[in-house]
Write a structure and sequence with these properties.
Shape: elongated
Structural class: mainly beta
Low-confidence stretches: none
Number of strands: 13
Radius of gyration: 21 Å
Number of helices: 0
Order of helices and strands: EEEEEEEEEEEEE
Mean pLDDT: 87
Distance between the termini: 26 Å
Length: about 200
């Protein structure tokens, strides 16, 4: 599921947080533990034992401990079940999962969030969180039809940017022209060039 370039997982990819694998118990006995080896194909492999209860024919998502994504390029991720309930799996033909992934964009530590609000900025909240889900920057309570340039100095790491719109129509929407048009850009804090 994560990391993946598959369209059904697009909302949670690209990513640089804990990989998530989906395990289905195709046997007759309940699973109480699964030992999984995982990592970047051709790179360092990690091993994790998930103490999860999975009934026969049940499927469960398992979040694995994070890996060092800094060495990754767009490539392949692999996960393989080594043991089930402390023993080799009786049917190991479906124990390997592979996915291709895109490495998240890498930006300089100093970026500028350039936002021009529409006529309903009270609907918007901008948030930057770290890989653990902690807010490192948040902006709300903005004025209508105004430009903001906030400079963020981020330590090396993985961050997620999220803009929420309680009206559900974003900064600009063709069917809601009375809200006006807003826009958002990320700028290089050193050169001023557009990042995204």
């Amino acid at each position: 599921k994560n990391p993946s370039t598959r369209v059904e997982f697009a909302r949670s990819n690209p990513m640089c947080k804990n990989p998530v694998v989906v395990v289905k118990n195709t046997g007759k006995t309940a699973i109480t533990s699964v030992e999984i080896t995982y990592g970047l194909k051709g790179g360092v492999q990690n091993t994790y034992t998930a103490n999860e209860s999975i009934a026969p024919l049940e499927t469960k998502e398992i979040s694995l401990p994070n890996i060092d994504w800094s060495t990754a390029s767009s490539g392949a991720f692999e996960a393989k079940i080594l043991k089930v309930n402390g023993q080799a799996d009786g049917y190991d033909h479906n124990n390997i999962g592979r996915s291709t992934f895109m490495k998240p964009a890498v930006y300089p530590g100093k970026i500028v969030v350039a936002l021009t609000t529409n006529k309903r900025p009270f609907q918007n909240i901008l948030t930057v969180t770290d890989v653990n889900g902690n807010d490192v920057w948040k902006k709300s309570g903005m004025t209508a039809s105004r430009s903001y340039h906030d400079t963020l100095k981020l330590e090396k790491g993985c961050y997620y940017f999220k803009i929420t719109d309680s009206g559900g129509d974003g900064l600009s929407f063709f069917a809601a022209t009375n809200q006006g048009d807003g826009y958002l850009q990320f700028l290089n804090g050193n050169t001023g060039g557009i990042l995204r």
